[in-house]
């Protein structure tokens, strides 16, 4: 039997999530302690040090189950997509607030008072989760006393727009391995955040997305594709904007670009191999 995917299951030889009892062997099982992200973006690392590979990121307001907190590093699992890794302990809080809204634009600011000239102004990014307690004119008052432009938010649970409309807004955003914001994004991060921005569920990595989203398509000569269809290579993913054009974050351009699918297929094929599959998303699964 294959062991559970360590990207989505918190276990090591010395410690593991108590929910995995009977599935993995470890020295001890522990229950996760809930924490919430307080920084605009927090890297999720493969190992507990700042030079370790960033495998994903957590955004402001996200919940995390922490299984170990030692020497400034917390090992845990993100609540929304289940990703496991190490986060800076200083970016986490045990004081939890219940989010009511999510940021609906690429980025916005949290202000100390309801005015655009007030300081400090702290940037937060698309899909960051906020707890709104009241409104003050054009601003929403947050549970922590700060303010945000109300029209930059959406209610959690709302399905708004389509993922392709979100993805194409990221054109020219720099490529960043593990990134999932306007500050930097990778290929699967772009697809995931585009789905999450419209209230839809989506796993983190390209192979997970290929296994979970939509139905496979039999495509001959790249014909018959539609807006929103997903295109897969080994370790890479893009999203169709129409029958011919693809949006994807990639290391060739070190950016998110919109280009003809045929150009991408030709270039990527010479370096990494052919397209491995096409999928067409079905009815959205709303999971905010």
How are the secondary structure elements laid out?
Layout: E1 16-17, E2 29-30, E3 33-37, E4 41-45, E5 54-59, E6 63-70, E7 73-78, E8 84-88, E9 92-93, E10 101-103, E11 107-111, E12 122-125, E13 129-130, E14 132-136, E15 139-142, E16 147-149, E17 153-155, H1 163-167, E18 180-181, E19 184-185, H2 187-197, H3 206-212, E20 215-216, E21 230-233, E22 236-240, E23 245-250, E24 255-260, H4 261-272, E25 277-280
Parallel strand pairs: 1-2
Antiparallel strand pairs: 3-6, 3-9, 4-5, 6-7, 7-8, 10-13, 10-17, 11-12, 11-16, 14-15, 15-16, 18-19, 20-25, 21-22, 21-25, 22-23, 23-24
How would you summarize this macromolecular structure in one to three sentences?
12% of the residues lie in helices and 35% in strands. The chain has 288 residues and is mainly beta. The two termini are 33 Å apart.
